[in-house]
Amino acid sequence: MSTNLLITGGAGFIGSHVVRRLVSQYPQYHIINLDALTYAGNLENLTDIESRSNYTFVRGDITNAELVESLFDKYSITHIVHLAAESHVDRSITDPLIFIRTNVLGTANLLQAARKYWGNEYSGKRFYHVSTDEVYGTLPLEGGMFTETTAYDPRSPYSASKASSDHLVRAYWHTYGLPVVLSNCSNNYGPNHFPEKLIPLMLHNIIHEKPLPVYGKGENVRDWLYVEDHARAIDVVLHQGRIGETYNIGGHNEWRNIDIVHLLCDLLDQRLERPAGKNRNLITFVKDRAGHDLRYAIDASKIARELGWYPVETFETGIAKTIDWYLANQTWLDHVTSGAYEEYYEKQYHRS
Ligand code: NAD
Ligand code: TYD
């Protein structure tokens, strides 16, 4: 049986790295990328692979049942890697309903389509749901880590919507035997990251000498993973993960926000040949995020033990690559901030 893999959200930050990896590593697969191209979807992330013969892009919404069913039918889908989501916590605070629509209803719609199309013929099929460590809630600064058995305790509309989708995916496994696998990952960083999230926003603002908004006192802690390490983990879980199982993915790399901002300021002082300490003057402490989770930390020992996955990048090497990429790709950054990236689809896919 051939492998026809539907990836959702493949024009986004993580999705584009996963698409590139799967298209390149598995020329025998047909990779169909379904993405609505919301503000977060950017086809300029995929220019290097868009003309590969094993790749097809479809613009569409995962909540559209008719469309999703037609894709299962047209491409005889055997595998799903589901990343499409609204992904930014701050946006979920101001506009929660779109998170429930895409993250909960969209996931339910994909599950229904898989069940309907696959019938009870589950051999060789797989539904992989990509999720976040934020479903586990928050940790104290002093210690503790999220494991796969930590009770869910989501606290933002974003994490609550992702938790709901995780529960639905597991319910389809327990109730219908749908062959699912899940992973919950910590904060990613790297090339193609939309500059609304901490690291790319700070890089963008430092480059343009704009204020660097640090929420509260900057004492919140996140565990950071280089995006290509995550894409490789997704490849591993897709192919080797046990059906019905969940794998936590993390970078063993906890940082306080303020320490990251200081690091980026200092590294860019050097790279941009500014006087030492100049960029730190841009730091502005602003009102804290509502319900701001204090600390996330992932115990990623299960995926290491069972599937042999470890992060390859250290924070030092990953941040160096990320800074190199943002400095070398200022056109990408300019297009994202000006909105010009939104014209790419019309230009490339709708030429008359
Ligand atoms: P992103 O916001 O960069 O990309 C999301 C993609 O989904 C975009 O291309 C967007 O156009 C698409 N999309 C949104 N709504 C859609 C809809 N209704 N139908 C079809 N496509 C739609 O997100 P990301 O940071 O790449 O995250 C991808 C996935 O990984 C998400 O499920 C997220 O919850 C999860 N995750 C992200 C992180 C992180 O640090 N960014 C960490 C762990 C897990
Ligand atoms: P973010 O990149 O939005 O990821 P998440 O909220 O999913 O962890 O934020 C990472 C951390 O950085 C989080 O503690 C909030 C903080 N933050 C700021 O201090 N300033 C900012 O401008 C942003 C976007 C985030």
Estimated helix fraction? 40-55%
CATH class of one domain: Alpha Beta
Percent of residues in beta strands: 15-25%
Give the overall average pLDDT. Answer: 97
CATH superfamily of one domain: NAD(P)-binding Rossmann-like Domain
Total helix count? 12
* Biggest sheet strand line-up: 3-2-1-4-5-6-10
CATH fold field value of one domain: Rossmann fold
Helix-strand sequence? EHEEHEHHEHEEHEEHEEHEHHHH
Give an account of the 3D structure.
This protein has helices at 13-25, 65-75, 89-94, 96-118, 157-176, 198-207, 227-240, 257-271, 301-307, 315-328, 330-338, 344-349, and strands at residues 4-8, 30-35, 55-59, 79-82, 126-132, 180-185, 187-189, 212-215, 221-226, 246-249, 254-256, 283-286. The protein has a domain at 4-187 and 226-252 and 296-314: NAD(P)-binding Rossmann-like Domain (Rossmann fold, 3-Layer(aba) Sandwich), CATH 3.40.50. Strands 3-2-1-4-5-6-10 form a 7-stranded parallel sheet, sandwiched between helices. Strands 7-9-11 form a 3-stranded mixed sheet. The chain is of the alpha/beta class and 352 residues long. It is globular and about 65 Å long. Helix 2 packs parallel to helix 4, helix 4 runs parallel beside helix 5 and helix 6 (198-207) runs parallel beside helix 8. The longest helix has 23 residues, at 96-118. Residues 8-9, 11-15, 35-38, 40-41, 61-63, 83-87, 102, 106, 130-132, 162, 185, 187-188, 194 line the site of nicotinamide-adenine-dinucleotide.
